[in-house]
């Protein structure tokens, strides 16, 4: 990879609207693996349209590579539409959970204050440990790891990214417009079969 390509690389959010079909996720992952491209985050969930799923894929690459990827993904039969956007073009969040010893949290008022400053809230409190949850950008959830490490952080897990495109009016309207422009063809009776049936019934 050239120095210019390295400079042009940035985080892109690839949004895929698709039918919920078994095996599609494997085929999409294969598109990346064949090109030796690493997926930083992958989330799949129902979309605003009943029966249609939405993938959100995060990758660090150049726009040229991402454009080719989007085009390749869109060739899959079950895929309805693919968009790609920079982080500036989307509203995104990730959720993280942190498990810490309850006795330290109870004794150290400093930790409680730091958690409050980082927007964390307790979701489970037990005698042996407490689980906190926070939502934000990667830098925010990473920062809380650093805060809790000195106080005996037991476990940490972060979700995949979820994102909404800022300027999108939603795929629902686009799909309805497409259906109006490309109405399904009515079933046309086969004249040959009809005439053959008449022969047999005579």
Any descriptors?
202 residues; five-stranded antiparallel sheet; four-stranded antiparallel sheet; 8 helices; disordered C terminus
Describe this structure in words.
The relative contact order is 0.16. This protein is α+β, with helices and mostly antiparallel strands and 202 residues long. The strands form two sheets. Strands 5, 6, 7, 8 and 9 form a five-stranded antiparallel β-sheet that branches. A four-stranded antiparallel β-sheet has the order 2-3-1-4. The C terminus is likely disordered. The termini are far apart. It is elongated, with a radius of gyration of 25 Å. The chain contains eight helices and nine strands.
Brief sketch in words of this structure:
This protein is α+β, with helices and mostly antiparallel strands and 202 residues long. The chain is 38% helix and 33% strand. It has eight helices and nine strands.
Architecture blueprint of SSEs:
Layout: H1 3-8, E1 10-19, H2 24-34, E2 41-46, E3 52-61, H3 63-74, E4 79-86, E5 90-101, H4 102-107, H5 109-117, E6 121-125, E7 129-136, H6 138-148, E8 155-158, E9 162-165, H7 171-181, H8 191-201
Antiparallel strand pairs: 1-3, 1-4, 2-3, 5-7, 5-8, 5-9, 6-7
């Amino acid at each position: 990879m050239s120095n210019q390509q390295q400079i042009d690389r940035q985080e892109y959010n690839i949004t895929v609207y698709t039918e919920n079909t078994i095996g599609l996720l494997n085929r999409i992952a294969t598109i990346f693996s064949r090109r030796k491209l690493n997926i930083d985050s992958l989330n799949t969930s129902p979309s605003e349209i009943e029966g249609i799923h939405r993938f959100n894929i995060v990758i660090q690459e150049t726009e040229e590579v991402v454009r080719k990827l989007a085009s390749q993904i869109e060739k899959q039969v079950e895929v309805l539409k693919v968009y790609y956007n920079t982080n500036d073009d989307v509203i995104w969040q990730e959720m993280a959970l942190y498990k810490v010893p309850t006795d330290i949290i109870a004794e150290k008022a400093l930790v409680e204050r730091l958690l409050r400053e980082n927007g964390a809230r307790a979701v489970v409190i037990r005698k042996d440990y407490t689980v906190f949850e926070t939502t934000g950008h990667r830098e925010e959830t990473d920062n809380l790891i650093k805060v809790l490490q000195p106080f005996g952080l037991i476990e940490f897990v972060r979700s995949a990214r979820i994102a909404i495109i800022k300027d999108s009016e939603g795929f629902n309207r686009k799909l309805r417009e497409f259906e109006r422009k490309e109405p399904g063809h009515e079933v046309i009776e086969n004249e040959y079969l009809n005439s053959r049936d008449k022969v047999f019934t005579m």
